[in-house]
UniProtKB/TrEMBL annotation:
It is a multi-pass membrane protein. InterPro entries: LeuE-type (IPR001123). It comes from Halarcobacter ebronensis. Keywords: Cell membrane, Membrane, Transmembrane, Transmembrane helix. The chain crosses the membrane at residues 6-30, 42-66, 72-92, 113-140, 152-173, 185-204. This is Lysine transporter LysE. GO terms for molecular function: amino acid transmembrane transporter activity. GO terms for cellular component: plasma membrane. It is found in: Cell membrane. It comes from the Bacteria. It holds the Pfam family LysE.
Length: 206
């Protein structure tokens, strides 16, 4: 039980820190929420979440197949730590950006539901960093004695974390006060996230 809690907390914290940093997904949610309103943003978020689920399951079954090989598994874990360090340093070096510089007028024509969903899905599925990221997440949280049911729980947690966080972003970017907060503090959030990811990368190999 203790190993499960350590693995879960490590995974959940590292995953959430990565979600906090504005990336490709954030900007497509920002764009679609501005153009098509909350419904467009939520459907885009759903598409992004399902694309992430594809990579989550791919990483889960990939790790499950090789975790019995100690050498390969240890190598992947080290590479995963290096990847987290890389992300962490990029976030620490990030400069303040103008998130809401361009005001996009909402289009009055109704768009097909599939279009909103597919815009989010293809944006996330065509981002190769997602596969690397989830492979890293499972390599640092799954041990040889981690049961398959716990692994499925990890996968479900990350899927719903992405979905709910992205929907939360939709509500933030369609609210004036929240937009001001994000504009002012997004860079501090990125740097804090980078610092925590670096600490996690170091601790998982001690």
């Amino acid at each position: 039980m203790e190993n499960f809690m350590i693995g879960f907390l490590t995974l959940a914290l590292a995953h959430f820190m990565a979600l906090l940093s504005p990336g490709v997904d954030f900007f497509i949610i920002l764009s679609n929420s501005s153009k098509y309103g909350k419904l467009g943003g939520i459907l885009t978020s759903t598409g992004i979440a399902f694309a992430n689920l594809f990579y989550i399951l791919l990483a889960l079954f990939g790790i499950s197949l090789i975790k019995e090989n100690q050498l390969i598994f240890a190598t992947i874990k080290i590479l995963g730590s290096i990847y987290l360090l890389y992300i962490g340093f990029l976030l620490l070096k990030s400069k303040k950006r103008e998130l809401f510089g361009k005001k996009i007028e909402k289009k009055k024509t109704k768009k097909d539901i599939f279009k909103y969903f597919s815009m989010g899905f293809f944006s996330a599925i065509l981002n190769p960093k997602n596969s690397i990221f989830y492979f890293t997440m499972f390599s640092i949280s799954i041990q040889n004695d981690t049961s398959f049911s716990i692994q499925i729980f990890y996968a479900a947690w990350m899927f719903f974390a992405v979905l709910l966080w992205d929907i939360f972003i939709v509500y933030l970017v369609t609210n004036k006060k929240s937009k001001i907060f994000l504009e002012n503090y997004s860079n501090y959030i990125e740097k804090s996230s980078g610092f925590i990811l670096i600490i996690i990368a170091i601790l998982i190999n001690i």
